[in-house]
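Re-run with default settings, no changes from the original entry. Doing this only to confirm the output is reproducible before filing.
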Amino acid sequence: MKSKKSDYILIADSGSTKTSWALLSVNDNSVERFLSPGINPFYQDSNAINYLLNDLDFNGKEPGRVFFYGAGCVGKTQLALVSDALSIKFRKAQVEVESDLLGAARSLCGHESGIAAILGTGSNSCYYNGSNIIENVSPLGYILGDEGSGAVLGRKLLGDILKKQLPDNICKAFYEQYNLSSTTIIENVYRKPFPNRYLAKFTYFISEHIDNKSINGLVKSSFEDFFVRNISLYSTAHKHTIHFTGSVAWIFREILALAADESGFELGKVESDPIEGLLRYHINY
């Protein structure tokens, strides 16, 4: 029997690299989870987004409501781009598109006020009053900002490798693992699509060599930059614990805790993915 549209709520958290989908049954709160490539309207046009959505299949189940939280969903043009694509894909559903930052805040803080931050491919942060984002220090992207993000960690690593600023054994291990020339790296960073994704993938190498003093210091200094250049600018930051979500925050959570403490802030929740918190939020909505 075909499900009624009101039987399911579809929740998505999308970064530049991947989208996590959770199909929630309103009847018994059971959840089915799916993954797809990231959707970011700053980097993708309507054709690219529609192409990605067309490949999605939720086992034939049609959601009645869709809540999409996405990187790059911050202006009328970007919100409309994603909303229109989702409305075409899910013609019978009520669609709501919000920023990934609001998704992080709802996931980490629920209906309470607090400071919520993202450390994934990119980085971002906000002061959230339990309903809405009240303050946001612009992350500025991986060239001008995005301190502590996977893209910036990768950018710093590659720059230090290419300019021989890291120990010889680290440089040797990098070239043995990736077999990349400087020309190939520069082409991927400056000429190919999604340079932020390309840079962020080198966090895997960083995590494998995190016991090296230089690599550890690279991560810690980038996290300290995040606290100084972002969190410290919120007037209420020292009154709240600072909550984090994202793969980079999770993988390097011990270093993140140390950087928070040395920067004078109290670390709160650290979660790898906002989707579980968003499920809790919408179940109790």
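The first helix runs from residue 46 to 54. The chain has 13 helices and ten strands.
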